[in-house]
Prior knowledge:
This protein is mainly α. 58% of the residues lie in helices and 0% in strands. Helix 3 (74-98) runs antiparallel to helix 4. The longest helix has 29 residues, at 17-45. The relative contact order is 0.06.
Amino acid sequence: MNVSAPRTAIDPMPTTYTEIYFPLLVQMLIAAAIAGGLIGAAMLLGKRTRSPLKDTPYESGMAPVGSASERFSVKFYLVGMIFILFDIEAVFLYPWAVVYRKLKLFGFFEMAVFVALILVGFFYVWKKGALDWSAPTKFPVGQRRKEGQ
């Protein structure tokens, strides 16, 4: 007679890779099956009528004007990079706020230095005019610089 220890009400944690990753594999297979089934059903049951009106780009109900390959101002990209910089600052501030009491005064001064450096960068780009969208550009959009300018 094989006598083993009685099972507890709570099963122990999985110990092998198969036990750990099998539920994840099942979930991915189910998700792939549902996605494939929905795409297949749309292909089989959906209408396939084409018309020139359906092939035109839709831009908020307005007729498209001009080319889609226009150049953007460098300020657009600069503001985007500045946004990412301050977004990353927020990502670093959140964990600091969570463990603030454990860090005590050392953590406060470390974060004060971090925020001061971020503010120096902010005032630098502000002084350079990167945040000023109303400043006129030397060459309007669509015009090229001539030789000698």
